[in-house]
Structure prediction request, 637 residues.
Amino acid sequence: MSKSSSWDIESSNDLYGVDNWANEFFSIAKNGELHVHLHDEGKTASVSIPEIVEGIRERGLDTPLLLRFHDLLADRIRNLNNAFNSAIKENNYQGNYRGVYPIKVNQQQQVIEEITEFGEQYHYGLEAGSKPELLAALAYMHDPKAYIICNGYKDQEFIDLALQSTKMGLQIILVVEMPSEISLILERSKALDIRPMLGVRAKLSTCNNSHWSHSSGENSVFGLTTNQILNAVDTLRENEMLDCLKLLHYHQGSQVPDIRSIREAATEASRIYNELVNEGAAMGLLDIGGGLGIDYDGSRSDSHSSRNYGIYEYAADIIDVVKTVSDEAGHPHPTIISESGRAVAAYYSVLIFNILDVNSPSADSVPQSIPEKTHPHLNKLSEVESYLNEENLQECYNDAVYYREEILSLFRHGNVSLRERAYCNSLFTRIITRIHEIAKTMEDVPEILADGDPFLDVYYGNFSLFQSLPDSWAIDQLFPVMPIHRLNEEPTAKATLADITCDCDGRIDNFIIDGEHQKHIPLHALKEGEDYLLGVFLVGAYQETLGDLHNLLGDTNVVSVGVKNGKTQYLRELAGDTISDVLSYVEYDTKNLEERFRSLAERSVEEGKITPAQRRQIMDAYRESIGGYTYFESHNS
Prediction:
């Protein structure tokens, strides 16, 4: 990238699309630092993220680290509830809205605690899809007006616990997802003499075009067909428990990008709901599941990484559809429940890591002259550079590629030296770079030269993609990535990002730059003695839960941040995994490891390879490492 004296923070704002994806939670300050907007006694406080990181380092924790902002979590819950409540009022809807948070989206204790505390004013509930999640929900959800929705497979222990907990005034709904569940629930209800609150999950015919479209439609793994729903209704009627059927649930899949498919699914589900009322079921609750999307790439489109609607439009369309269908059927408007997890939790967390090193192909120097007695093909490649101009770009490109391939073949057969091969690579890089520089100035560019820069720098980040951003690897999920400082300077490098795992998949090469999907990200050149820090945003949903121990790189440091009276508060600190921690996860006993290493060291003393004093130093280093961070640690950390 060429340097420009006119570069400013607005240029960086446009380049990284901050206004498009940040939802007004983040902005660039005049000094080029990225700020987060938090609440301070009823006012908005703009806090420097680099200063937050520096404060954390002063307290003994280092990068990589995960920042949590509880204010952003609260804002998302507030916005979601306000959107539905406004739509209810404006449409004269006679039912209510009750949100529930799916614990699976981010199961961390702090998340559940903060959601239940802030959400209590909205009677915001929880969704549990397993016994561990149900136990967590029961411990934190004490609001008798909020719902605990129980999805997923349920054994007798799960069902008994849910039923018995209703005696304490909790509104717990068992959603039937498999035909076999209905008989077990009825059996346990009679045995415990507890009438349950029941729901059924419907398989809709409506599909969507999201990455998770397989979760919707009639081929969905979960849910009941219309025949199975009617069989459940008949079974409940026969057992005089049809009044226990309160809820219809459906789920379109996560991150639904198109509002039209949301309306279509809500319409179909509303028809089923009202037919169940006609069958004599008590009903009263319509659970529209998840699917409310996040605009990861800022395009406001129906791409997989975006959505073409806002929260209010989402709420208004749901309310409009359900009201219309219910009015046509002549039935009361149901209370709407949504299970929006991604939309609530995504903004909550930000991954921060430092760049350790850069590998730049353009850094290879080309000797002033060709080595003596070199192969003629090297002379030919050098001549390509001498006659390169705007009129013969395609020809020069073809010649350069040809001679390079020939020289590589000659090397494999032992006919050119390693130094000749290195000279070839450096010269080829310079020629192709020059060709693309000229091509950018032309209106009519040969197709093969129109794909952008052929050589990108690799910036090595102090993080594990598999631990902190598993969706980037697994499903090519796009997350906003950008520097958190130096944003008043023009970035001069085009790069991809690599993590510190020994895996070729441990890289990020999918970015949103200047409003378009790109295979590179513009970054700044490293400065001697200064850290270069990048942030990855919207990582609060699923990433912590799905992260794994590839290369035994564990959980990062986690710090929860707020602000009070103008001062940054470090509310909670959770140290990342130590080497001892991750080794224990894969069945190593660190005491046994130390003893085995001690035996090796002692044998080395006996054999005269090291002195006893050196053995002590080696053992001290081993013990210190076992208790250390799994990531790269700077000497001054």
